[in-house]
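Action item from last meeting closed. Structure (425 res):
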């Protein structure tokens, strides 16, 4: 059997000695103790950085999935960490609960989404890890350990965004909300207006985000708010067709930016506006088929428009091959030690590059702009930072590293990539 693993975009691959799918925490504990190291755990492989890569063992939790128990009064659900978000949405809807927010897709495992601070958008809405009530892990010695928000707050704050380095999550209890319905609106407007009114527009909705369409001067704004109205039909998704148009114009007119811009603007002006009401689980996720690589930085909220303006200028002056829209979101502050949203309201800016092309020149040129504005990188998306730089961005860094040593005293979860991130010799 081939032991090849690769991530969603194909940019990261590994040939570990062993790929294993334990069926329970006991089997998992044995593997953590005895399998060839380093031992890394995979979710759905949707990270763009080599977090999962290992020359030793890669553990898949695909057999550890599903609902364990729930509390209807508190809207809490205990689930196995290998559960994918798609099935999780349906499990929760079936017990009258909803995830308070979601990102772009529903393909990740909950353990993987927690592992990198995966987030959606909304100034009062935290990333998935802020929903944690209890966490069960298998630690680096193969022992099962349980932590609760009430009583083990520090450990929850240490483990919540854990990069597969603070034990293998086996079960988590999530604080959800009662199932709900959303009204979602989407329309195109000039980027100048979007940047001018950024703070007000992002704050005016429960969840708001926008995409800037490179070389067009236009943004596509998307807002969702609670609704009691009857559901209406969700229009068919046009994102993939839109991408194909943008790629065609890129390929034929890369060096004619003004003509390209004119054609994109006239195409954008015809993008149909959307306005529909649906249950929460039918609103957030999109189907992403065109493979890309991505960098996302999390900046102090008020710096978002200035940083984005610089990224747009860089792209349009020097990187005509770029055609993927840039995504701009907001995320609520939290108290988790390795959370990029630690103690600050955030504006997240994501740039994408077709997976068929080398993303590094574009990413390397953009990263200093994000860093100049005080950005913290998304843990699962491309960045070049190592321990010395990361430590300066995270006030509780030393506490997090001490918690990691307690959980994994023999560095079983430390691959070369993780050693660079954490500064482990
Ligand atoms: C098309 C696409 C769209 C995306 N959209 C968004 C978005 O909207 N918002 C956003 O924030 N990100 C987004 N991402 C990034 C993605 O959500 C994160 O990289 C996420 O971590 C991937 O989850 P995964 O299950 O694939 O985990 P993996 O990438 O497989 O693993 C991520 C990390 O979690 C660890 N891990 C996984 N399972 C466990 C476990 N049980 N216990 C301990 N550690 C574990 C791994 O070791 C690794 O360190 C997107 C990625 C893609 C490809």
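Sequence:
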């Amino acid at each position: 059997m081939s032991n090849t693993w690769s991530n969603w975009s194909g940019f990261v691959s590994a040939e570990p000695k062993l790929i294993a799918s334990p069926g329970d925490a006991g089997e998992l504990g044995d593997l953590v103790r005895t399998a060839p190291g380093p031992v890394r755990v995979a979710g759905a492989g949707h990270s763009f950085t080599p977090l999962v890569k290992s020359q030793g063992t890669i553990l898949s939790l695909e057999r550890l999935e599903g609902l364990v128990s729930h509390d209807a009064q508190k809207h809490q659900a205990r689930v196995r960490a290998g559960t994918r978000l798609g099935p999780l949405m349906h499990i929760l809807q079936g017990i009258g609960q909803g995830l308070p927010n979601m990102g772009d897709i529903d393909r990740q495992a909950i353990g993987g989404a927690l592992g990198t601070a995966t987030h959606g958008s909304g100034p009062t809405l935290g990333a998935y890890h802020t929903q944690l009530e209890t966490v069960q892990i298998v630690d680096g010695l193969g022992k099962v350990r349980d932590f609760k928000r009430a009583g083990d707050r520090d450990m929850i704050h240490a483990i919540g965004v854990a990069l597969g380095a603070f034990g293998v999550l086996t079960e988590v209890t999530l604080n959800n909300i009662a199932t709900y319905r959303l009204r979602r609106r989407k329309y195109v407007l000039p980027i100048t207006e979007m940047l001018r009114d950024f703070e007000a527009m992002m704050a005016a909705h429960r969840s708001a985000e926008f995409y800037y369409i490179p070389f067009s001067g236009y943004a596509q704004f998307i807002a969702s708010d609670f609704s009691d109205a009857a559901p209406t039909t969700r229009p068919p998704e046009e994102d993939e067709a839109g991408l194909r148009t943008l790629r065609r114009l890129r390929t034929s007119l890369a060096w004619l930016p003004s003509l390209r811009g004119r054609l994109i603007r006239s195409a954008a002006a015809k993008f149909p506006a959307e306005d529909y009401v649906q249950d929460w689980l039918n609103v957030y996720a999109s189907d992403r088929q065109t493979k890309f690589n991505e960098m996302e930085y999390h900046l102090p909220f008020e710096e978002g428009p200035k940083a984005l303006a610089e990224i747009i200028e860089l792209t349009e002056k020097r990187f005509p091959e770029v055609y993927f829209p840039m995504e701009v979101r907001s995320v609520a502050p939290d108290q988790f030690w390795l959370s990029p949203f630690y103690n600050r309201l955030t504006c997240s800016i994501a740039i994408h590059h077709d997976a068929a092309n080398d993303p590094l020149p574009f990413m390397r040129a953009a990263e200093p702009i994000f860093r100049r504005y005080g950005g913290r990188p998304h843990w699962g998306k491309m960045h070049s930072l190592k321990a010395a730089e990361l430590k300066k961005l995270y006030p509780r860094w030393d506490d997090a590293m001490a918690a990691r040593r307690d959980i994994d005293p023999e560095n079983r979860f430390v691959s070369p990539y993780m050693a660079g991130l954490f500064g482990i010799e």
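Note appended to the action item: The chain is about 30% helix and 25% strand.
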